[in-house]
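Example record

The entry below shows one chain as it appears in the dataset: sequence first, then structure tokens.
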Amino acid sequence: MEYILYANKPNQPDYLEEIITETKSLSHLEKAKKWATQNGFVSLRVGTFENTEEEFNDLVKFFRGQ
């Protein structure tokens, strides 16, 4: 499983969130969370991606508008 850490700076709208890191390591994810908060980021959010064939097919259908 892949983890993606997103965060915003204070008073930024949600659509301006930044990707802080993408990793498969939970320990790296925790270090990135700590780094983000120490560097002024707030509203941290973690997304997950399993990279399965079914998930890929769903993404293709989404982008094709099906």
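Notes for this example: The mean pLDDT is 90. The first strand starts at residue 2 and ends at 8.
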